[in-house]
Amino acid sequence: MMRYNFTHWEWYDFDHVDQVEQEKNLLMRENVPEWIKKVQNQREIVSHVDFPGQRNAVMYGSLHINYADKEKNNIVYVYIENNLLITVGMDFSKVKTIDKKSMIKEMDFTDTAPKGFLRIIGEILNSFLIELHPTGEHIKLMHEKISQNKRANHLDQIYKFRFKLLKWDDLNAALKDLQIALQEAFLDQIDDTQEFKYIQKRIQRLDLLNKNYEKDLDTLRDLNNGLVSYRGNEIMKTLTVFTVLITPISALGALWGMNFKYMPELDWKWGYLFALITIVTSSGIIFGWLHKKGWTGNILRGRKKNSYTK
Questions:
Q1: What does each C-alpha distance from 165 to 66, 136, 153, 202 come to in angstroms?
Q2: If you compute the radius of gyration of the chain from its CA atoms, what whole number of angstroms results?
Q3: What residues are paired with 85 via a beta bridge?
Q4: pLDDT band for position 307 (50/70/90)?
Q5: What is the DSSP string of 129-188?
Q6: How far apart are CA 150 and CA 143, in angstroms?
Q7: Following DSSP, what letter does each residue of 221-241 receive, concatenated?
Q8: DSSP code for 13
Q9: Do the bridges between strand 2-5 and strand 58-63 make them parallel or antiparallel, or are there none, so unpaired?
């Protein structure tokens, strides 16, 4: 457990839930025991506000500080009064983009715990923006893969990134919820502060990136599905035309394979040639009829080198 004393407020930073119970005598506040009971359940806490707008206002809730913690369900718990901040499980060593020492120095310039916590949220949001950037690069690479290898089905990769963005949405939503809960609890104390404006802008940036990436993935999914469907239709069309064209051959082969006692065509001098001419002629007539109807489509038509339907 670390305790940081600032000019007008203090921060208790616990590593584990068990430490809170051991050190509860240090936290002699009216609403802390109720919060400790909820923390001990080790589940996510819905943001809660008591006495909004008053001097003794209280806000508590939970969040995840990085994507890996969201995957492992590692929860960070927070409790905030005007002059007190308590956190449990806020391990900044897992977030490479956050320098805890520098952040604490900056928090010396804040005069209340809510403003100090806004600084923390701002740093977490900044780390989210940095961590989310590679996802955008991967989506661009996937676009290139689809354009270069149009015969493969990329749906698994698309949905993998789609689910990843959903988790980023959840992380961002939890911070937005805490932001609004802080507004509700401390009202005019934080609305016009620089820290609050910073996190508003960073939340907007995260929302914008998420929406753009989701839109790109939806477009890639539709493009992938369209290409797969088109290729499937072309294959079925080709097989259908092929089946129709070999029908005369199949019919004649079936006749030749019969073992009737009387088969006069066996004695024909030009029977073999006649059979070949019949097959070619009937196949040609069938193909001409299909082509006239427009049912052969692009089967025999060459495609351009960079065609998306190649």
A1: 13, 10, 21, 17
A2: 35
A3: 11, 80
A4: low
A5: HHHHHHHHHHHHHHHHHHHH-TTS--HHHHHHHHHHHHHHHHHHHHHHHHHHHHHHHHGG
A6: 10
A7: HHHHHHHHHHHHHHHHHHHHH
A8: E
A9: unpaired
Q: What is the pLDDT of residue 77?
A: 93
Residues 6+ apart with CB under 8 A from 47: 59, 60, 61, 177, 178, 180, 181
Rounded-to-integer distance, Cα 235 and Cα 239, Å: 6
Residues 122-160: tens digit of each pLDDT: 999 998 898 888 888 888 888 887 777 656 678 888 888
The pairs formed by 241-249 with CB atoms below 8 angstroms and a separation of 24 or more are 241/287, 241/290, 241/295, 241/296, 241/299, 244/286, 244/290, 245/283, 245/286, 245/287, 246/283, 247/286, 248/278, 248/279, 248/282, 248/283, 248/286, 249/279, 249/283
Q: Count other Cβ atoms within 10 Å, centred on residue 53.
A: 12
**What's phi and psi for 12, nearest 5 deg?**
-100, 120
> Phi and psi dihedrals of 262, rounded to 5?
-105, 110
DSSP H/E element including 203: helix 194-245
Bridge partners, 49 (sequence order): 59
Mean pLDDT over each residue of the chain, to the nearest integer = 82
Per-residue pLDDT of 179-218, as tens digits, reads 999 999 988 788 888 889 999 999 999 999 999 999 999 9
Give the pLDDT confidence score for residue 295 in this predicted structure: 65
Q: Which two tokens stand for residue 263?
A: 């088969």
Separation CA 20–CA 86 (nearest Å): 9
What pLDDT does 131 receive?
A: 87
Q: Any idea what the Cα angle at residue 197 is, between residues 193 and 198, rounded to 5°?
A: 115
The Cα 299–Cα 67 span in angstroms is: 48
Share of the chain above pLDDT 90, in %: 21
Asked whether the predicted pLDDT for residue 114 surpasses 90, the reply is: yes
Rounded CA separation 193/196 (Å) = 5
d(CA 155, CA 152): 9
